[in-house]
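Hi everyone,

Forwarding the result from last night's run.
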Amino acid sequence: MLIRSLLLLVMIVSVAVCNRPSLAQSPEIESYLVKGEAEAGVVAMLDRLAQSPSDDHARFSLGVAQFFVAVEHLGQGFYEFGLRDPNRSIASMLPFLRLPIPFNDNPRLFSYQDSRNILQRFIDDLAVAEKSLSEVDDTEVKLRLPITRISLNFADASSPPVPLRKILIAMRSIRDQQDFVVVFDRADVAWLRGYCHLLTAMCEFLLAHDGQELFDATAHLFFQRVDTPFTFLPQGQRVYDFGGGFDIADVIAMIHLIRLPATEPLRMQAALHHLEQVLEQSEEMWKFAIAETDDDHEWIPNARQTGELRVPVTQDMIESWLVATKEGKEVLRGERLIPFWRGNGEQGVNLRRVFTEPTTFDLVLWIQGTAAAPYLETGEKTRPDVWWRLQQVFQGNFIVFALWFN
């Protein structure tokens, strides 16, 4: 009887093991992302890590999938409230709103609190992705992804996923229709972590300020149905129709109303922390990238490699970037001042205090200079030759490379 019971137990265990998918048989994250199923990919990678906690390939895959889920949730929020087509509206001026969101012919009424909720969810989602990426230790980790074949789900089940190619074109990251595959490596783990911190810093800055007045007067430029006391704005006559369904007077009002009281100052300190992490991750990225000896479908190549974007990166570029990164860290620590664009040039702006002692952010007064007055100090300024060298080395395209390198 005992022997029969043991044999039965062995048979049950054997069947269970045989029917359970092995790690080798479980799909790669690529198969989920290409179908626009990033959330299912997250579940699959979590299951794989539960079976093999030391699998950094799965952990890297998980962080990438979680990043795409964060972007999907952002887009789904915009879809739910009826983001206007950025190609036909002023939305194309703002990076977040350039996402090619499908048209929603029955959007919900959009309130200012809804806008804050969308940004907070994006922050929370990015934190999840960044945490997963931060736990990748394998210096040899690699993740192959057909970038232009990946799709994201921005709408409901009835709408097809949006190709990442279309998103990158809308965000002005690529210009052509070329297909390319990237093999992401340990340097790119730091790169993506840096981008998580950069996007989070932007959101924390926005949420640190009260934008209710700005929203009430201009949100109709971006969304179809807005909860505003000024219901006449999107209807009827305009002062001067600028084309694309918006009035030039509304654009002027938008610039005028970028006068945002700092109501949650701790968020400004959080934004500062994330900016500091962007520079830390940039240095880590180049530490790993410079050490690479292969040339395997690189996303950001070193001077000896050829990147998939076919944009040459020279040793001078890398060295000048790292010098500027060090300079930027000193600026964020308040050890160097930003030269003041008014007065006799003796004073500079302590950028750290802008974040640690925030007041109302007034765009026009910052351009004019009076908003900088509380932060003016005498002291050692950031070195002009550092930034001049960047412009020379990058041949005037520093901003484009900065968006790529982060």
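Residues 1-25 have pLDDT under 50 and may be disordered.

Cheers,
N.
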